[in-house]
Amino acid sequence: MADPVLLHSRTVQQPRATINKLHILFHLTAILLLLYYRTTNLFYENNVPTLSWSLVTVSELIIAFVWFLSQGFRWLPVSRSVFHEKSPSDVGLPGIDVFVCTADSKKEPTVEVMNTVISALALDYPPEKLSVYLSDDGGSFITLYAIKEAHEFAKSWIPFCRKYGIKTRCPEAYFSLLAEDERLLWSDQFKVEEENIKSKYEIFKKNVENVGEKDENNCGQMDRPPCVEILHDNRNDEENNEDKNKMPTLVYVSRERRPSYPHRYKAGALNALLRVSGILSNAPYLLVLDCDMYCNDPTSARQAMCFHLDPHLSRSLAFVQYPQIFYNVSKNDIYDGQARSAYTIGFSYGCMLESTFTGYLLHCRGWTSVYLYPKRPCFMGCTTIDMKDAMVQLMKWNSELIKVGLSKFSPLTYGVSRMSILQSMCYGYFTLQPLLSVALLLYAIVPQLCFINGTALYPKVSSPWFAVFSVVYLSSLCQHLYEVLSTGGTLRTFWNEQRMWFIKSVSGSLFGCLDAIMKRIGIQKANLRLTNKAVDKEKLEKYEKGRFNFQGAAMFTVPLIILGILNLVCFFGGLRRVILENNIEVMFGQVFLSSFHLLLSYPILQGLIPSKRKKN
C-alpha cells in the first residue's frame, strides 16, 4: 500500500525555541527574587509603608502571574507550511459551506459585506462543492437587494478571475493599490476586459449605495418571520459544460427574530445557518468569515484541506486557524490594531466571543487544531481607526474573556485537566489578562503618590536589589523588542505596542472588567456592541498621520486624563522634593517610573488639546 502524499509540514522554530526557554528561566528567576524582596520586607521590616507596599506587591504579583501564563505561547514555537498543489483533484475534495454574518448595515457597510461574499464565491474550489451563506441578522432590505446585485456582478467577475488566474479576488481590493502588481504586464485583451469588469463593479457599487442612501433609516426589523432565499443553486450548473462559468450556491438567510425570545447574538445566527445549510448543501466542512474579512488568497480553502485530508491528523482535527491580518493598518499603527500576539460544529452560547469559547470547549473535549500563517495572507479584514471603536471592541472582548476566566469553565480549573498544561496556560492568559488593568491602575497611582510624599518603594541605586528590579524591567523590554523585530516589526512598532498596552489596560480593559462585574450582579444586561466598520474621512486622515482621535471616547479617556494629571503633579512635586532633600539615589526608581508614565501619557494630552480648541 502506497504511503499517503505529504500535504503539510511542521517545523519547530530553532534557535528561537531555545532562546525563549533560556529567557523564560532567566526572567522567572529574576521575578522570584523581586517577589522575595517585596514579601520579606513587608513582613520583616518595620520601616516600610505597609499599605502602599502591599498594593504594589499585589500589582507585581498579578503582572508576574499573567506573564507566566503567556509563556505557554513561547515554550515551543512552530511553523507550518502546506503543499496544496499536491492536494486531490476536484473530484476528491469534500464540500465546504462558507458562512458570512452581518447585523447592521450602518456599522457594517453593505458594499464591504458584499465584497466578502464575492471573494468567497470566487475561491479556487470546485463550485459544485462550495456554498456561500449570508446571515443578515438585521433583516435589512438593503442587504437583500445588495446580495442580488452581487450575484449578478459575480457572474462576470468569477470567470474573469479564473481566466487570468487573479489572486486578489475581492473586487474592491483588486481595483485598489493593494493589487497593483497583478495588473502589470498583461495583454491588451486583458486590459479591455479589465476595464469592462471595473465598469460593471462601479455600477454595482453605485446601485447599492444609492439604495442605501434612499433607505438609510432602514435598520431592519427586530420582530420578523424567517426569510431564506436561494439566489443560485450550483446543481443547476451541471448542464453547463464550461467550468469557468460555474458558480457556487449562494443563499441569503434572515432568521426569525422575536423580542421575547433570546436570539443568542452571532452564535445564534451561525447556528441558524447550520440548520439551513444542513438541508440545502450539508457540507462536512465550514469556513466562517467576519463580514469585513475577505478571502485574499483563492487557495485558502485548499490549504486548509491539506490538514483535514491527512489521515493521521483528520480524526481529531477540529479546525484550521489563520491569523487576522488587516489591510487598513497604517505604518504607525498607533492603536496596535494588528494585535500580533493574539493568535481564536455548533457554536457555543454563554459567551459573546462565540469563536473563542467554541474553540476552547472543542479543545477541552479532546479535539485539536492547527495554526497556519502563510506568506500571503489568506484573509484580510478592517481594523479600528479611532480610539472610541478600539476601546468599545476591547471592552467587549475583555468583558467576555474575564467572565470565562472566572467561571466554572476557567482554563486553570476546568481546562487544565482536559488539555495540555501549555494549552491551558495559553487560554488562561487570554481569559485572565484583563486583570492587568487592576495591576497597572495600582502601578499608575501608588508609586506616584508615594513619590510626591517622599516615600520610597524601590531599593536605592547602590543596593544589590536595585539590580534585580532593573534586570526584570530590561529583560521584559528585550523580550518584547526581540519578538517585534523577529516578526518584521520596527522600533516604532515596539514603542506603539508599549504605549497602547498601558492605555488599553487602564481604559478599555478596565471598563471590560467593570462591565463583567455589573453583568454578574445584574446591574447591566448583556448586549451586542458591534464594532463600527464604516470609514470616516476625517478619522482616516488623523489615523494615517499618527494622531490619536478621542472623539466620542469621553468615557474611556476619564481614567487616562485623571492618571495623566495625577502623574504630572506628582512628578514635579516629587522632583522638587528630591532636589531639596538631595536623595536621588533613594528615589531614582520612582523618578524613572513617573518619567516613563509621562511619555506614555503624551498622546492623551496631544489628542485632547486640539479637540478643545476646535470646540471653542
UniProtKB/TrEMBL annotation:
Coiled-coil residue spans: none
UniProt main location, coarse: membrane
GO biological process: cell wall organization; cellulose biosynthetic process
InterPro entries xref list: Cellulose_synth, Nucleotide-diphossugar_trans
Domain of life of the source: Eukaryota
Membrane-crossing segments per the record: 21-39, 51-70, 552-575, 587-605
Gene Ontology MF annotations: cellulose synthase (UDP-forming) activity
UniProt-annotated location(s): Endomembrane system
Topology class, membrane: Multi-pass membrane protein
PANTHER family for this protein: X-BOX TRANSCRIPTION FACTOR-RELATED
Residues given in the record as UDP-alpha-D-glucose binding sites: K107, E108, D137
Chain sites annotated for binding Mn(2+): K266, D290
Keywords: Cell wall biogenesis/degradation, Glycosyltransferase, Membrane, Transferase, Transmembrane, Transmembrane helix
Transmembrane among keywords: yes
Organism: Acer negundo
Name of the protein described by the UniProt record: Cellulose synthase-like protein G2
Gene Ontology cellular component list: endomembrane system; membrane
